[in-house]
Amino acid sequence: MTAATSGLPSILGPIRPRPRGRETKLLAVVAITILAGSVSLELAPRVADPGVSQGLSLANPLHIAVYLGLIGLAHLVLILSGRRMDQVLLPATAMLGGVSLLLMERLPQTLVSQAVGPWKLGLGDVQLAWLILSFSLATALAVTVRSDRWLRLYKYTWAAAGVALLVATYFLGDEINGQRLSLSLGPISGQPAELLKVILVVFLAGYLSEYRPLLVEESTKVGPISLPPLPFLAPMAAMWAIALGLVIVQRDLGAALLFFTVFLFMLYAATGRPGYVIVGVILFLAGSFVMYRLVGTVQTRVDIWIDPFKSPTGDGYQIVQSLYAFARGGLIGTGLGAGLPTVGGNLPIPAVHTDFPLAALGEELGLVGVMAILGLFLVVVERGLRIAASAADDFRALLAAGLALVIGTQAFIIAAGNLKLIPLTGITLPFISYGGSSLLVNGIIVGLLLALSDRGVEPPPPPKPRSRLTRLTGRVTRLATPDAGRPAGRT
Fold it and tell me: Strand pairing partners for 190?
């Protein structure tokens, strides 16, 4: 990942393909699971209607074939690259993407409708297209990123770009339900807050690694509390202001909570001083209380969280239906494709494909399925922290930890919101929720983690030991010519 590393291929010669046995076995499990889920989707309506002829088939053979072919191609590219990268990240995220594809196939296709030339694409078609782009981007970054200098040296430039994205979204963004979260440039539309996650992690990794000795060793006493040196309080104050600014300007509670939580995690990872985290939590809680008093959106979300049944057909409708879905699922679920699709011709949860995918999966896969999905997110976080622990320097360690924590924290926030553990926020479940911006940014994160995990091009294998016959022949030759090994000039 350093500049010197980029020269390895020219020193060692052409890169040789390197088998990835562990990844191959795990991807086989992923393929079997996705195929079984697709068969379950196809069988569910037949079981409900005994008059329909029985038989095993896939719900959408073309989509499944394209997705499995995509993952297989990504695996092949990693093999041919010869790089010694993590072999668990791709299978874990491929399983999450497969679950997403099955869920989008199961939901009404009219939830999303896009026209591309003469073709009309539904929810499953569009999600498959975004999954293709996401994993293609992850694979390309994993193979091509050889140096971190373009991230390390321009951290302030990245931070300025992130602020510019926020400003552009505020003034030029599309307003939907009182929120300005998306920005359109011609035919392209996306949510800049998704990309801002990566930008802020890069900035914080660069800043905290550069000033880590001062943040660890120096402190300013304010009564019994030890704070960082006053000049270095600015980044903490700036992050606090950005988090609350997102709430005020964009009414985006999820992004605000995500950014500040990841910031505190990275600050603790860099310094090991819990006092900084405590001060940060106090500041965030104080600011949140002020926002609750001043911003109507925050007050509504908190009131719904406290008692959604106060307005079960109004503001609390979605969270109430989410809780009912988990209750119907029980321990093992109703079966994939056998949940409650509509009530009175309408979806029980209108935003099920974006904000509540875990509720739909909880109904059909039960508590066991939900725990398995959350376990996959823990695997992604564990691999990221493992990469951070083996990194060569502080910047790469903090960058890997921050990127992994973005996915883990985001999954926790949306899962906790669906389960009414915290107020509901408008962020997506990584790799599962519908959304192009989210999938592309998650692809960038996985690609960078894979690149950071590279242990260098594997050196050539040692020469094979000579056979016993060859050794014996050489020994006989030396005995037959005793002067062969004698120094010149001697008799």
Answer: 183
Query: Of the candidates 394, 253, 311, 333, which has an alpha carbon nearest to the alpha carbon of residue 44?
Result: 333
CA atoms within 13 A on the CB side of 355: 17
pLDDT value, residue 469? 47
Backbone angles phi, psi at 453, to 5 degrees: -80, -10
Helix (H, G, I), strand (E, B) or coil at 227: strand
Count of C-beta atoms within a 10 Å radius of residue 336 = 24
Cα–Cα distance, 399 to 205 (Å, whole number): 5
| Six-digit token string for 305 | 């969280």
Per the CB < 8 A criterion, the answer to whether 397 and 389 are in contact is yes
Q: Domain limits of the chain?
A: 5-452
The per-residue pLDDT for 6 is: 41
Residue 136 dihedral angles phi and psi, to the nearest 5° = -65, -45
Tokens of 464: 């094979």
**Distances in whole angstroms, Cα of residue 322 to Cα of each of 173, 319, 342:** 30, 5, 13
Task: HSE, CB side, 13 Å, CA atoms: give it for residue 483.
Answer: 4
pTM of the model: 0.84
